Fold this protein.
Amino acid sequence: MSERSRRTLDGIVLDERVTFTLHELSNACGVRTELVVEMVEEGVIEPVAQLDTEWQFHGHSLIRAQRALRLVRDLEINWPGAALALDLLEELDRLHSR
Amino acid sequence: MKFKDYYEVLGVERDASKDDIKRAYRRLARKYHPDVSKESNAELRFKEMKEAYEVLKDPEKRAAYDQFGENWKAGQDFQPPPNWQREHAFRGGTESFADAGQFSDFFESLFGQARGGGFSFRSGNLRTKGEDINANISVPIEDAYRGASRTLTLEVPEADSGGAMTRRRKTLSVKIPAGITAGKRIRLEKQGGPGMGGAPPGDLYLAVEFEPHPYYRVEGRDVHLELPVTPWEAALGRKVKVPTLGGAVDLKIPAGSSSGKTLRLKGRGLPGNPPGEQYVELKVMVPPAVDEKMRELYETLERAHDVNPRAKLGV
């Protein structure tokens, strides 16, 4: 069965031009905020700037957080392990795109 | 439905210990995890091994699965025995994050939720956000320059009237913003799998990749082009036409250029703040001496200026 949607969907590009609050990031990842706080404390993702008392994250942090969640769940590794894997994978991507 | 040989999927013997199974899964998972692997069939392979591990790591599920014995081969037609659901009440819930509807019909028939009976593996009362879907979208460089809309077809999970998960094909039209670069991700909210228990649907994430182009190569926002020129255009310095994503422009080649010389067309790459550049690398093409006239001209050149381009190589 196939359904064609008539209107063109307008997504957002997850780059440094979009930001998410802690709450929005947790929602997008489908996890509790405590888990996102843990990721920040373990250095998996980094907030860009603290506006008043609230953290702001770049679009890229959402991608990183989701990948980290999958790696921790599926490879049975811990947060620092996931952070290291992500750093190396991103470095590899940079080298490949040259 | 087809029987699945979970031992074969993980490459372990039927009498493998719990530790052997864990080791085999972890080794394969590192190789085939879709976030890590570059293998083309990684996602499919990984789903299979995750399903196999889900069963074999759990003594209760493994014992139930082992009842089918080794006479069953992967791919054989299979139906669960009658009363299976009544005899086996599986308490699943091992998933730490939302991940429903990922397993095969074979798995669901043995360990999943039986409609109108049995024990639910994914409790229907749970309020769970729908599955996020990750997909790639291949974009021509021209579309990334101008912005465009692209259609793509995806398999998305869907809850049928009985609440069971099926997958169906869905065609979407998606806006590609001008200036997007390869590796970027576009998030389309609520275009993923349906939520359960009144929770919102999941989201769709599209990873952008560029279609290979016959003559442009893109790095970030910069566009690279190899431009063929004749020896006399390169030697004398001539104005030539150069294609750019925004249309052809004139480029003055400096006199005395050789192959490899790279010229920059400022701001002619992909749009952005700042926009990318277009880099033009000259490649001197030598027309062959096809007739007597050409031959004479080359010989005149040779006599007039007998240079040794290999002097630096010491020969």
Notes: Chain B touches chain A at residues 26, 29-30, 33-36, 46, 50, 95-99, 128-129, 132, 149, 153, 168-175, 177, 180, 182-189, 191, 202-206, 219-220 (CB under 8 Å). Chain B is about 25% helix and 25% strand. The longest strand of chain B covers residues 148-159. Residues 92-100, 114-124 of chain B have pLDDT under 50 and may be disordered.
